[in-house]
Amino acid sequence: MVPEHTQPVPGDSPVIIEMQNLVKTFISSAGEFTALQGINLNLQEGEFVAVIGKSGSGKSTLLNMLTGIDHPTSGQVLVRGVDVYAMSESKRSLWRGRNLGIVFQFFQLLPMLNLLENVMLPMDYVGMYDIDQRPKKAMELLALVGLEEHAQKLPAAVSRGQQQSAAIARALATDAPILVADEPTGNLDSQSASKIIDLFEMLSRQGKTIVMVTHDPSMTERTSRTVFISDGELVNETIAQTLPLLTHSVMKELSKRVKRLYFQPGAVILEQKKSVGFFYMIEKGKVDIVLKERRSNDVVISTLMDNDFFGEIELLKGGKSIASVRASLERPVDLLAISREDFLWLMEQSPLTEKAISTMVQERLEERKQTDRRKNRWKLFG
Questions:
Q1: Does some domain include residue 245?
Q2: Using CA atoms, how far apart are residues 340 and 82, in angstroms rounded to an integer?
Q3: Which residues pair with 36 in a beta bridge?
Q4: Is residue 152 located within the same domain as residue 181?
Q5: pLDDT tier, 44 (very low <50, low <70, confident <90, very high otherwise)
Q6: Could you tell me the pLDDT band of residue 371, with boundaries at 50, 70 and 90?
Q7: Residue 86 CB: number of other CB atoms within 10 A?
């Protein structure tokens, strides 16, 4: 039986972007193709989000829906509560200039203008800052990305990494709260790419929301959140992060089978020496692994956090729980749970995942043995 739980509370930061039941269907002479299939996604202020997926998965289409460059077939896109597609084209264009900074994969700098003039263009378009202030503001942005010495150069006279940095400076020209980047590091060497991500991390810490589309999984190591998309559908983020060796098709199927659970601080999730019927993944929060002692207080032997899992030892090895698991005393915890039957199905579907989890089981059992040895020595000499 799944333990009792209550409904989750919303996140700490306010939601800035809401995508509701977003569908995009393209119609051509070859027929219909649905690129987005009912996307529901909320993004919070200050998040640095990577949108990742294979070529043709719907990443760029999703980005075009957010920026208002293309129209959804159905559904809504709300930015700070404003329906992007309820506006006229002219109003949406002005809204985009003030609320979104867009970094294109191939830079899109105007070749006949120098870097300073390219950065000033968005200010001119939306009428931001006094005319005599714009060169100073643009120069400050070029200095931010390390290009102040190249301000008078044409794009062709600087490197590709410098062109991308200039494109980011231009995207920041109107101080928009949201920065959207389509494969911003796809054409750069590793050193230039790292500098771009450094800048995005800094901007996120300053409160800007960064949405970056990429096909490179390594980019997700430095983002605060990763959104996975496959064949126009979102893959559950916790499943993708916790069990990365699964194929996307298995991830999508598993997303349909999970149960969402919520526990208040200190609530018991599993009891030591009781049967375990579920495999748990931590979506948000922390849990403590606790050993119950007869003559002393409970001992916390480890703490698990976002995208960790538990319950696998008992499901693979059989028997009852070797320890208790409770929600951390600090805050509530959100979990995803799958039944024993679905867990065994998962192991059959992904031998690589089964091997990785089996290795984790051995490591955790060895940790438990070491804990028992230390405890016995303490009793003997204490």
A1: no
A2: 44
A3: 24
A4: yes
A5: very high
A6: low
A7: 11
Q: Are residues 88 and 49 in the same domain?
A: yes
Question: Which residues, other chains included, contact 145 with Cβ-Cβ below 8 Å and sequence gap of 6+?
Answer: 165, 166, 168, 169, 199
336 Cβ contact list (under 8 Å, min separation 6)? 236, 238, 239, 258, 259, 260, 261, 280, 281, 283
Domain boundaries, position 225:
15-235
Which residues make beta-bridge pairs with 235?
228
User: Residues 258, 55, 355, 366: what is their CA dihedral angle, to the nearest 10 degrees?
Assistant: -80
The tokens for 195 are 């500098």
* Position 244 confidence tier, pLDDT thresholds 50, 70, 90: confident
Tell me the mean pLDDT in the region 27-31.
85
Please tell me the pTM assigned to this model: 0.78
Helix (H, G, I), strand (E, B) or coil at 193: helix
Token code pair at residue 302 = 């480890």
| Mean pLDDT value across the chain | 87
Would you call 35 helix, strand, or coil by DSSP?
strand
Residues 29 and 62 in one domain: yes
User: What number of other Cβ atoms are within 10 A of residue 266's Cβ?
Assistant: 12
In the chain, the percentage of residues whose pLDDT exceeds 90 is 52
d(CA 206, CA 204): 5
Sequence-distant (≥ 6) Cβ neighbours of residue 245 within 8 angstroms: 350, 352, 353, 356
Average pLDDT over residues 328-338: 94
In whole angstroms, how far apart are CA 9 and each of 13, 241, 267? 12, 22, 16
Quick check: 277 and 356 in contact, CB under 8 A?
no
Identify the three-state secondary structure at position 323: coil
Strand-pair category, 209-214 with 82-83:
unpaired
In angstroms, the Cα distances linking 136 to 67, 97, 117 are 28, 19, 11
Calculate Rg over the CA atoms of the chain: 25
Q: At residue 377, does pLDDT exceed 70?
A: no
Q: How many structural domains are present in the chain?
A: 2
Instruction: Spell out a b/e string for 209-219, using b for 16 or more CB atoms within 10 Å of the CB, else e.
Output: bbbbbbeeeeb
pLDDT tens string 135-161? 999 999 999 888 999 999 999 999 988
